[in-house]
Amino acid sequence: MKKKIIVASVFTVALIGGIIGIKSVSGGHHTSGAETKIVQKTTIQETTTAVQHETKAPVETKKKVDLIFPEKYKNVSAIKIEKKKVKSEDDSDEMVEIYEKDDEKSKVVGIGVDGSYVKILKKGKKFYQIKSDKITGYVKKENVVTGKKAKEVLIEAKDVIVKVKAKKTELRSEDNKKSKVLSNLQEKAEYPITDISKDKKWIKVERTSTMSGWVKTKDVTVKIHKEYLYTPEEYDDMLEQEWAANAITYTLEETSLPKEGEAAEFLKYATQFLGNRYVWGGTSLTSGADCSGFTMSLFKKFGYSLSRTAAEQAYNGKAVKSNKLKPGDLVFYHTDRKNKNRISHVAIYIGDGKILHSANKTQGVIISRLGNPCAARRILSGKSVKKDNDKDKEKTAVVSTKKDIKRLNQETTTEEESSTVEIEKTTQVPNTTEVETTTKVEETESCIDEE
């Protein structure tokens, strides 16, 4: 019984002590429950305010403004022709094919050239779906560039134009105020851009084919000439139109070829392919080739390695004046009606004012008149050689570095001082000698864009 009384007493004391402890805790600050809530709320507000003061306000970043291109050209996209050292049979003459589906075996619905203006609709692993004017299709993703790269391609293609704002805008020789004034540009006149100064305060424009200079960026407005994709029919029609004026074709019997030497061997071999098919992107002498595929494959048989496209071949070999042509020389043409500065066709001069070339789909490989080439290059060395595919004996005519191209341009500038030349006619053309015709021809490098 005593044990029970002791246990009860201990329990009572503990209970009383707990109550007293609770009271002292709640009453020690002389604060009621409601007051406690207010204190807590105030503390939270003070803490939040302190955090806000400690947090740095976001720094306003200035919007990057393009001093050259208007805002509407911010996300511009364009076709870029990849210039590869090793070319496949699918590569073609300065153009890319636009397919109906994301498959190279599908129907070709369009043709793109350097600077063709496109809009990207969908990006895939290998193909981009694009739209350009009325053509929608698929192109290899490596042939599409955007943003800054696209603008560079458009400038190279001379599709970026300036429009003069001021009445008296000076064209200067250098990108500074102290340089020589070359001429005054007319208000509202338009010129293609060829370069932009590092500070973007000056723009270099091409006033004529023989005069370029710098204008102040603030004196002009910049716009992009939208060169859309071609349909296959439009692209082929450009070649048709070029040779419409040279519709007269010749048979082999009507042609005087050299009798001996390397050129004689070369042309004898080349003329056996007369009548063969013109095929976009083709390099086969028997199954079909485009113009540059035809020349590349012919010279390869004689141990010369040429670049794949007409524009690239215009930098191979050695520059030749138009009045100094010899059989076997390459001659180049503008056939692009939308861009007169783009080389888009190449042929082989065979003598007597005639050329051998893979002309177009309608005519195939033919002999026709020389016409008006804009450039000429000499590939053959003049020494008689046998056809040999041995790589060790291959004579390389390819110019693959910018340094080499610059050197060739300097050589050409030294050789050619005038823009046109009158060529006298001769009744007989000696074999392998320099040839003369009555055609007025622009000098050789006039159509080669600088790189």
TrEMBL record:
Q: Where is the NlpC/P60 domain?
A: 260-386
Region of interest (Disordered), ranges: 407-451
Question: From start to end residue, where is composition biased (Low complexity)?
Answer: 426-436
Q: What is the species listed in this Swiss-Prot or TrEMBL entry?
A: Eubacterium ventriosum
Q: Which family does it belong to?
A: Belongs to the peptidase C40 family.
List keywords of the entry alphabetically. Hydrolase, Protease, Thiol protease
Name used for this protein in its record:
Peptidoglycan endopeptidase
According to the entry, every stretch annotated as the SH3b domain falls at 157-224
By its UniProt entry, which PROSITE patterns does this protein fall under? NLPC_P60, SH3B
One GO molecular function term of this record is: cysteine-type peptidase activity
Q: Which InterPro entries match?
A: NLP_P60_dom, Papain-like_cys_pep_sf, Peptidase_C40, SH3-like_bac-type
Pfam families hit by this protein = NLPC_P60
What's a single GO BP term from this record?
Answer: proteolysis
**Keyword Protease part of the UniProt annotation:** yes
